[in-house]
Specification:
heterodimer, A: 233 residues, alpha+beta, 5-stranded mixed beta sheet, 7 helices, B: 316 residues, alpha/beta, 8 helices, globular, disordered N terminus
């Protein structure tokens, strides 16, 4: 092959006599080898690799139950939304109705009965989505009701959906706006959450959803999830 | 027959052929017929200068290989295997340039835990010559990038991020010229619009400059500096359905770029894409997918006489 390329090149270059020429031969090489290779990089990576494995296996908390994300709402969906809401509002006095809305699709794993490791939290939330506060006009309540009805259920906290109607704790008759604590992924229209384009204000926290979950587990030690069915249509 | 695989395209791209001497683009040569021993005479081959360009993109902190039960890339990738491949090529080729098109960071706990330091150490050990910044290379903050790149002994090339009013001021370069075996290779980098992809709290006072304008300005500068080959490291993305600037759009609106090594869209190109530029010449675009699963290789053969003009012909 290589010999052939040279031959072809020489033929071409020869044929065009004095033409100035660049030739390119491309190849796409798979990075794969049958034997596990150990080389100069192993010495560099080794300590990090070992330490990370130790870190990933580190126990950060305990779950008394097996929990899975199922619609319309489930203990795991409740726990995730509650954890984010608690992380964000523990030291904040809310003057405007505020609730947490995440997406079931963002919960990528289960929480299993027993010890919860650092690595488990990464599996639960591998994405680096950040927590954002989004202010929406009151008429968007209907958009969210439609959104959750269409999907069949999403994680919510500090609110419930009764017979399809979104009821945010602390809602007042004269409220013109409300805040949604969510992820930048949803705010940017991910998972078809297009209603967020009607936002009137945004506060970006820069805090990763995963970091908040990790922190809530560590704070609680043994986590407990609300088993209430929060959503009904 | 070195490492041939089913993916290896049997293409040779020839720049600056005198079209009138041949049948035009897409001229098909059927292998053995044309290979004659006299063509391989030493006096014919020695005037070709050869430089091997190796490249990656969107490696996303994949230090370890993908697990053996991975649905798409079982056991593939990993920095040690990448080193094995690169070292083999270096043992066979005298003049090698190793480049990356960004998104080195983010994707495995290695990044979350070690903030990109390990990625920089590995790339330095692998002998990278230059890289451009992807949007995820901002994920640890600009201070995080700065700290990690203390371990990088290669350059970051960013022509359209103006970092003047930030802590990255003068930490990246616009262009860099490499001389390899008598061939002068000019390299520059362009990145994607940060607004909407990277929190403003992170990119701060970084000014985003028009990638097309800056790319063409860089290419012209490099041409004026006498570069034989001009390479754009791009994190713009391969192609979009709308007007957003992509590698394809840039290629079509360029004049002096020979090769765009792309990233961002995780596009796997088994064969480089050819696009006609403003002068009607062909620009090559290549991208390796993501995760360090593939290594792109392009062997450049440069004639002794410096090129200046005309066409690229594909020989299949």
């Amino acid at each position: 092959m290589r010999f052939g390329i040279i031959a072809l090149l020489v033929l071409f270059l020869g044929a065009c006599a004095s033409t100035d020429t660049i030739a390119v031969h491309p190849e796409m090489l798979p990075v794969k080898s049958d034997s596990l290779s150990s080389n100069a990089l192993t010495a560099i990576v080794g300590p990090y690799r070992d330490s990370l494995r130790g870190e990933m296996d580190r126990v950060v908390g305990f779950s008394p139950l097996n929990m899975i994300a199922t619609r319309p709402s489930s203990p795991l969906m409740n726990w995730v939304a509650d954890a984010i809401f608690a992380d964000q509002t523990r030291t904040v006095r809310l003057s405007t109705p505020t609730f947490c809305l995440l997406n079931k699709g963002g919960i990528r794993s289960t929480i299993n009965k027993g010890n919860i490791t650092f690595g488990d939290v990464f599996k639960l939330m591998p994405f680096d989505n950040q927590i954002v506060w989004v202010q929406l006009p009151i008429e968007c309540l209907k958009d969210i009701e439609t959104y959750v009805r269409t999907s069949g259920g999403e994680p919510i906290a500090n609110a419930r959906i009764e017979n399809g109607k979104l009821l945010i704790n602390g809602m007042r008759q004269d409220a013109t706006h409300f805040w949604v604590i969510t992820s930048d992924y949803l705010m940017n229209g991910g998972d078809k959450a297009t209603f967020f384009s009607k936002r009137t204000e945004v506060n970006k926290t820069g805090r990763l959803v995963r970091d908040a979950l990790m922190s809530e587990i560590q704070l609680a030690g043994t986590i407990s999830a609300d088993t209430t069915l929060r959503i009904s249509f | 027959m070195r490492g041939q695989s089913a993916l290896t395209p049997r293409y040779v791209f020839l720049f600056n052929m005198d079209r009138r001497s041949f049948l035009g683009t897409g001229f098909l040569v059927t292998g053995g017929v044309l290979i004659s021993p006299t063509l391989l005479a030493a006096e014919n081959t020695k005037r070709l200068k050869k430089v091997t360009i190796l490249h990656t993109n969107d490696t996303h902190s994949n230090i370890d290989p993908f697990p053996d039960n991975h649905a798409k890339f079982p056991g593939m990738g990993g920095v040690e295997k990448r080193m094995e491949l690169i070292e083999k090529i270096r043992s066979e080729e005298e003049h090698v340039l190793l480049l990356d098109s960004g998104d080195i960071f983010q994707g495995t706990p290695y990044f979350n835990k070690y903030k990109g330091v390990l990625e920089m150490k590995c790339m330095s050990a692998l002998g990278y010559d230059a890289a451009t910044m992807g949007n995820h290379d901002f994920d640890g903050g600009m201070d995080g990038f700065l700290k990690a790149t203390e371990y990088a002994d290669f350059s970051f090339l960013c022509a359209n991020y103006d970092f003047t009013d930030t802590i990255l001021n003068q930490k990246t370069q616009r262009t860099k010229v490499f001389k390899k075996g008598g061939v002068k290779i000019g390299v520059f980098g362009v990145g994607i619009e940060l607004k909407g992809l990277v929190p403003e709290t992170i990119y701060g006072k970084t000014q985003y400059l028009d990638p097309m304008k800056e790319a063409n300005a860089c290419a012209l500068e490099l041409k004026k500096q006498g570069c034989d080959v001009i390479i754009c490291l791009s994190h713009l993305g391969y192609e979009y359905g709308d007007a957003q600037v992509s590698d394809k759009v840039l290629a079509a609106n360029s004049e002096h770029i020979h090769l765009i090594l792309g990233g961002h869209t995780h596009t796997f190109l088994a064969v480089p894409t050819q696009v006609k530029n403003l002068a009607g010449n062909t620009v090559l675009i290549n991208q390796t997918g993501w995760g360090g699963v593939h290594l792109g290789r392009l062997d450049f053969y440069v004639d002794d006489q410096l090129f200046a003009k005309k066409e690229m012909v594909v020989v299949q």
